[in-house]
Amino acid sequence: MNEQNTTNVDIPLVQWFPGHMTKARRLIEENLKLVDIVVELLDSRIPLSSSNPIITSLVGNKPHIIVLNKADLSDPVITHEWLEFYKRMGKTAIAIDSVKGKNLKELTQAIGQLTQKQTGKFAAHGAKPRNARAMIVGIPNVGKSSLINRLSNTIAAKTENRPGVTRAKQWIRISKNIDLLDMPGLLWPKFDDPTVGLRLAFSGAINDDIFDKEQVARLLLAYLQEHYPSALLNRFKLEELPEDTNELFELIGKKRGCLVKGGHIDEEKVVTIIFTDFRSGKLGRISLEAPSA
């Protein structure tokens, strides 16, 4: 994979594995035998970093669809590269926007096609074909609940912009012939590559309270300076970008009126602006990693 230096300072070690993650893993293991296919939801801005190696090992040879969610937030050129990357690997991959419902029909069609063999076994013995059973898995805050609500047209799964909300399994009918088993978000105990933890922190998959928000926000700003300078120029109405990230941080604070007594910058407010503007897409469509050629 293409690795790009986020900045020239040390990357902080970001780790988050709350207790309920162990229960989530156990739930997935126990229920895999009940389903015909696994739908793995990834963040299209960070497909590599949001792919849980535990899920990959648990799925094994079971039919598996990779869904790049939040495609409305990622760089469309790089998202296309990821789709081609998975295609070369022989995997079914679909880019979606679960909030607006883009490409969801393509997803349900793929589930139906890849489960025909399992659901058709009943018809071969004279019985009515049963519904396809799909399990949806992914890391926290990757949009599983939003996707399920869109597919089922109900508020079937509690949706909240906070990692780790869905903690129990739920069966939801998403079409007349597909039942979906929702699983809690699952991280893995240790990120061997610190860049993975950092990108998960950028995206909001990790609870903001467990890392140094200002340090991580400055690292995100440095990445954007290097790879998406026009996004910063447009969003903050700047004529040019300073080369120094700390200077840019201060400039954003002044532009947005984040000042405290004495004319100093309110660092906490600037951090909130950087995270919010990136995670909501107000900075534009941005990807943090790309597949190798």
From TrEMBL:
Residues 21-189 form the CP-type G domain. The keyword GTP-binding applies. It is found in: Cytoplasm. GO terms for molecular function: GTP binding; GTPase activity; RNA binding. Coiled coil: none annotated. The keyword Hydrolase applies. Its main location: cytoplasm. Transmembrane segments: none annotated. One of its GO terms (cellular component) is cytoplasm. Keywords: Cytoplasm, GTP-binding, Hydrolase, Nucleotide-binding, RNA-binding. GO terms for biological process: translation. InterPro entries: G_CP_dom, GTP-bd, GTP-bd_ortho_bundle_sf, GTP-bd_ribosome_bgen, GTPase_MTG1, P-loop_NTPase. It holds the Pfam family MMR_HSR1. GTP binds at N69, K70, A71, D72, N141, V142, G143, K144, S145, S146, G185. PANTHER family: MITOCHONDRIAL RIBOSOME-ASSOCIATED GTPASE 1. Belongs to the TRAFAC class YlqF/YawG GTPase family. MTG1 subfamily. Required for a late step of 50S ribosomal subunit assembly. Has GTPase activity. This is Ribosome biogenesis GTPase A.
